[in-house]
Write a structure and sequence with these properties.
Blueprint lengths: L53 E2 L5 E2 H11 L24
Bound molecules: zinc ion.
The site of zinc ion has 9 residues, from loops.
Length: 97
């Protein structure tokens, strides 16, 4: 019996996360229903367009708060730090090092 092909844990990212900016989204954010960014643990809210709108998916956190928290802690909430991983090189937006 041949070994089954290993299934990738996550689809490759193409589109930037609205919170941390790394390209972790496999589809545009408008289509990424309930996608949770593996780098910052922001849960995508496809209906949320304003960065100061409280996000139901993120328990009322706004995108602006999520970004500040990611910069401060490395995740949108400090208790999410154990779930996140560092961005992969290919996820870093072009033009940044
Ligand atoms: Zn993110």
């Amino acid at each position: 019996m041949p070994e089954p092909e290993p299934v990738p844990a996550e689809p490759p990212g193409e589109y930037p996360c609205p919170c941390c900016g790394y390209r972790t989204f496999p589809v545009p954010k408008e289509e990424a229903m309930a996608f949770i960014c593996p780098v910052c643990f922001w849960e995508n809210d496809i209906f949320d367009s304003e960065e100061d709108d409280p996000s139901d998916e993120n328990h009322g956190m706004t995108l602006r708060q999520g970004r500040e928290n990611y910069r401060k802690w490395g995740a949108v909430r400090p208790d999410f730090l154990r779930y996140v991983r560092p961005p992969r090189p290919e996820e870093i937006p072009r033009g940044q090092t």
